[in-house]
Amino acid sequence: MTHIGKLASVNTLFVMVLLIILLATSFISSVIWILNERIDAPPKLPAGFYLGVTAGGSVTETKTLIDKVKDYTNMITFTNLNITENKTSLEEISDYAYNAGLSILVFMVYPSPFNNYSYNPITWLSEAKSKYGDKLLGCYLWDEPGGNQLDRGSFRQFDNKSMPPNYLEAANTYVYYLYVQMRDFIKTDKLFTSDYGLYWYDYEAGYDVVFCEFNFNNSRPVNIALCRGAAEMHNKTWGVMITRTKDDASYIEPAPQLYQDMVTAYNAGAKYVEVFNYPQIGPYGLLTEDHLDAIRDFRDYVLANPQNKSSNTERLAYVIPNNYGWGFRNLQDNIWGVWTADEKSPVIWNKVNSLVQTYGDGFDIIINSPWTWLFGKCHYDKLIPWNDTGAP
User: Fold this and answer.
1) Phi, psi for 308 (deg, rounded to 5)
2) What is the distance between the alpha carbons of residues 262 and 245, in angstroms, rounded to a whole number?
3) How many angstroms separate the CA atoms of 77 and 72, rounded?
4) What is the pLDDT of residues 54-93, one digit of tens each?
5) Minimal CA–CA distance to 305: which of 274, 268, 256?
6) What confidence tens digit (pLDDT) does each residue in 228-284 have?
7) In this predicted structure, what is the pLDDT of residue 182?
8) What is the DSSP secondary structure assignment for residue 135, as one 8-state letter?
9) What residues does 320 pair with on adjacent strands?
């Protein structure tokens, strides 16, 4: 009995030592795995700032793009209506992007007999918000509404055949008819668009976020001033969409210029910086390896340089006349797409260019609405009237 008792004690001790060794080994393995995961995981972009590209290809091409950019971006916008109008395809790429850790924007238009939706997009957005949570940023509704109005494109709200009698009625007509085509979506989630003019009135119609476009040779500082000023006065958010710089859909600016445009947008305070990536020319759309390297380098720039709220450090705003829907692309640009430049245009043009020479993109442009002078001082330290006399 004595020998049996001793043997049992030895066995018990052996089992306890073995368990301790196993537990220690498991703990060490877990620590090593966690450390490796942290080392291997790509650095995350700051909370509240979004860097992304658009995806206009097929389901397979979109997945290939996601796999390529997921380690150094955090947002993707699905722009192919053939995909977003098909519920099965949309959910397939949305699930894929979500599982890759990307935030999602979905391009949509209002359902009509001319669209081929296989589902109710408004209902889908509500359900998708429950599924994807904050990873669904919202709906990218329509595209370039202001630009379409200025250039009388297919999505214009009026033209020279149905033009309002004056600037006031033009502003009211544009805002009202744009709102009518947005109102059902407004109930679902945040609404985004990209534009190159009339930003103020896009926000008036109900958009939550407008991406001002860096396109062609249009002035970056002027577009920043217009879009950022409109967002500031409406207590909304703004971003930048970097698009083509030539009248050629297959052209994208060289990688060094792309990088500099992203840095400019970021330093100006944009909370969204996205690259328009269409048409699908190569495996990653319009983007080459050089462009992708530029986006990755910009990610590194963001990580190394905390963003200030705005480059408008002097809190300065230039106040242009009420309802003045001028395009700001050149001295002869049109007003609301139906009137030629008027007697105020040269005064505003010269003053804006003078401000650019002095401040770069460190000033905003806002509209002289009835509440601008009442609440403008809450947003800016100095308001400059359009003609320096205080006249509306």
Assistant:
1) -80, 165
2) 14
3) 15
4) 999 999 999 999 999 999 999 999 999 999 999 999 999 9
5) 268
6) 999 999 999 999 999 988 888 888 999 999 999 999 999 999 999 999 999 999 999
7) 96
8) G
9) 367
In the chain, helix, strand, coil percent, each to 5? 45, 15, 40
The pair of structure tokens assigned to 64 is 């290939």
Cα torsion at 355, 359, 361, 364 (round to 10°)?
-60
Q: For 336-363, what is the mean pLDDT?
A: 98
Residues carrying CATH 3.20.20.80, the chain: 50-304
Query: Dihedral angle at the C-alpha atoms of 24, 26, 32, 37, nearest 10 degrees?
Result: -150
| Cβ neighbours of residue 201 closer than 8 Å, sequence gap 6 or more | 146, 171, 174, 175, 178, 325
Q: At 270, which amino acid appears? A: A
User: Taking Cα atoms as reference points, which of 100, 99, 97 lies closest to residue 78?
Assistant: 97
Query: 323: phi > 0 → left, psi -120 to 50 → alpha, else beta; which?
Result: left
Euclidean distance between CA atoms 242 and 291, whole angstroms: 12
**Distance from C-alpha of 197 to C-alpha of 385, rounded to nearest angstrom:** 20
The CATH number of 50-304, from 3.30.1660.10, 3.20.20.80, 3.90.770.10, 3.90.870.10, is: 3.20.20.80
Q: What are phi and psi of 25, to 5 degrees?
A: -65, -45
Q: Give pLDDT tens digits for 119-152.
A: 999 999 999 999 999 999 999 999 999 999 999 9
Q: Which burial class, exposed, middle or buried, applies to 150 when counting CB atoms under 10 A from its CB (0-12, 13-18, 19+)? A: buried
